[in-house]
């Protein structure tokens, strides 16, 4: 069962090797632990999963934070590091879709930079594999770069219905080094994920992704027409920036009407930019989206018409 799942993931990602883990965090931590050495320099996207930052620091590799989704920032750091005397490798680590801002990375340009500077490229596909792309290959499929990334890691829980993680590799030596310490995926989880993969990577999956893309765009259009500050690009995640002073009461008012939304605050996101992160799925329909947009509109109007408090005279 596990071997069949790993073969399926490798085929979808157009990479020769894949292995599974008990969770997405395990996949990231164990893969990076096996790959990195203290002499390496890692250029890591600021929106990358926390497990990536923790593992880079634990391995005592050089950590170079880059603004989310910025190809130019990665290139500047690569040029600077290439001029310095180094004993280790250059590594680029980036999420295909950022979890906090729904930014979609330009993986084609990142891959070109990696090849030009002889850097290893690691992509986190937790939020797009199975949920984006005509055949479910995520951002790499959309941008036509399947098989051009050195390592792909991520969580399987986001799209495949059970806890689990994966890593896929171009280089067999990286795969064998990671597998030595891998905590196995429970067989029951593997069975559930494989069944979900049969749907996600089949004809029904195509239909579901079309619907998911449609409802994501529909919600974004509703919110932007109402003046909401929607950020990022179309994906299963719809982040909405909120005024810092009223983020908590706005969330309480919205949830009192039924919907449960994730409120992201500092230190996860900047102090001045709290936001709702709405995560859509393929079972949401136009009526669900219209109802949610109407509720968000009502909450915004309730706060926007509140008079500003005047300073108290002393």
Summary tags:
314 residues; alpha/beta; Aspartate Aminotransferase, domain 2; Aspartate Aminotransferase, domain 1; 2 domains; 7-stranded mixed beta sheet; 4-stranded antiparallel beta sheet; 12 helices; 16% strand
Task: Using the alpha-carbon principal axes, give the shape.
Answer: globular
What sequence of helices (H) and strands (E) makes up the elements?
Answer: HEHEHEHEHEHEHEHHHEEHEEH
Cα separation of the termini: 73 Å
Q: What is the H level of CATH, i.e. the homologous superfamily of the largest domain? A: Type I PLP-dependent aspartate aminotransferase-like (Major domain)
Number of helical segments?
A: 12
Total individual domains: 2
What's the count of strands?
Answer: 11
Radius of gyration: 21 Å
Please give a structural write-up.
This protein has helices at 2-13, 24-35, 50-58, 71-83, 107-116, 138-142, 157-160, 172-179, 187-200, 203-225, 247-256, 286-304, and strands at residues 17-21, 41-45, 62-66, 90-95, 120-124, 151-155, 165-169, 229-230, 237-241, 262-264, 275-279. By secondary structure, the protein is α/β, with parallel strands linked by helices. It is 44% helix and 16% strand. A hairpin with a 6-residue loop joins strand 8 (229-230) and strand 9 (237-241). It has 12 helices and 11 strands. The strands form 2 sheets. A 7-stranded mixed beta sheet has the order 1-7-6-5-4-2-3, with helices on both faces. The protein has a 4-stranded antiparallel beta sheet with strand order 8-9-11-10, covered by helices on one side. It has 2 domains: 2-200, 3-Layer(aba) Sandwich (Aspartate Aminotransferase, domain 2), CATH 3.40.640; 203-304, Alpha-Beta Complex (Aspartate Aminotransferase, domain 1).
